[in-house]
């Protein structure tokens, strides 16, 4: 009995991967084996960098808070210690946004924790 091969499914699988690799350079976009390997590697990088993105943004927020805190004669660590001691529930993302876009509100928070 002849071998049965599902050409429709295998071709659809290849088309799906080649569609995802559009815009890649050279053989990476149209040669099946190269495109498959490149896409798998790219998805691995995407997974890793979704985690690293959180790390990078947290570091950016800390730098912004530190720069604004130093204008108020405090270091980042002392400011965060005072904020926690005063019982103010504010995260670094919001605090960094205030430091950049609304310095008066940031100054008000710093004054409040200094007095507490």
From TrEMBL:
UniProt keyword list: Ribonucleoprotein, Ribosomal protein, RNA-binding, rRNA-binding
Biological process (GO), any one: translation
InterPro entries per record: Ribosomal_bL20 (IPR005813), RIBOSOMAL_L20_CS (IPR049946), Ribosomal_protein_bL20_C (IPR035566)
CDD domains listed in its UniProt record: Ribosomal_L20
Pfam families in the cross-refs: Ribosomal_L20
Gene Ontology cellular-component annotations: ribonucleoprotein complex; ribosome
Top-level taxon of origin: Bacteria
A GO MF label: structural constituent of ribosome
Membership in a protein family: Belongs to the bacterial ribosomal protein bL20 family.
Reported function: Binds directly to 23S ribosomal RNA and is necessary for the in vitro assembly process of the 50S ribosomal subunit. It is not involved in the protein synthesizing functions of that subunit.
PANTHER family: 39S RIBOSOMAL PROTEIN L20 (PTHR10986)
Listed name of the protein: Large ribosomal subunit protein bL20
Organism whose genome encodes this protein: Candidatus Limisoma faecipullorum
Gene: rplT
